[in-house]
Amino acid sequence: MELNESQKLSSQREALFDAAIKHALYNNVLKTNGHIVFGRGSDNAKILFVGEAPGFSENENGKPFVGRSGKLLEEWVKELGLQSADYAVMNVVPIIPLGEEGKIRPPTPEEINYFLPITMKMVKAINPEVIVLLGKSAARGFGKESMHTGETTEFEGKKMFFIYHPAYYLRNGRKGLEDLTNLKKLLQKENQQKQQTKLGSF
Ligand code: URA
Fold first, then answer.
1. Which of 47, 96, 118, 128 could disulfide-link to 87, CB 3.0 to 4.6 Å?
2. Among residues 122, 123, 106, 182, which one has the least CA distance to residue 148?
């Protein structure tokens, strides 16, 4: 079931919107006639991609990663061999952060922390096998600020992988496919383990 329609996530969705309209960032939604952005993808995702905050395309569409960064993310998804039922996408901040002159800026630690309790509830409700942190803001939310691209770690018993934000690769004219190697290995291992458990139960 798609995250936006999922019963399983309805209380988190409500809590996120409630919190969002109370935050100063909500002025950006009003000013731009934009959206509070929840998530997209499967509510039963095995892989959860966590990004930073909506950009202009996401603010307009109401879904995360639907602009240029989203296009690159979809290339990564293909490279990893994932089907749409396998993954979901969300951000640590659900509102576009705008600075002086209406320019987009990274969310502040205060903004990330404000939404953190709901971010964590969303992660718990989706309950993925692997969390993929896309860039520093996502890593900050999960207390993993010093990770390097391609690095794996654990978070509350789940596998976690860090990669630079797709926008970073776009800025540098790269696709970053080579940085997905450890994630590919991790997913293969998870699949093998599942196969073995299946076989073991016969
Ligand atoms: N960058 C992000 O971190 N999230 C989005 O949804 C879009 C761009």
1. 47
2. 182
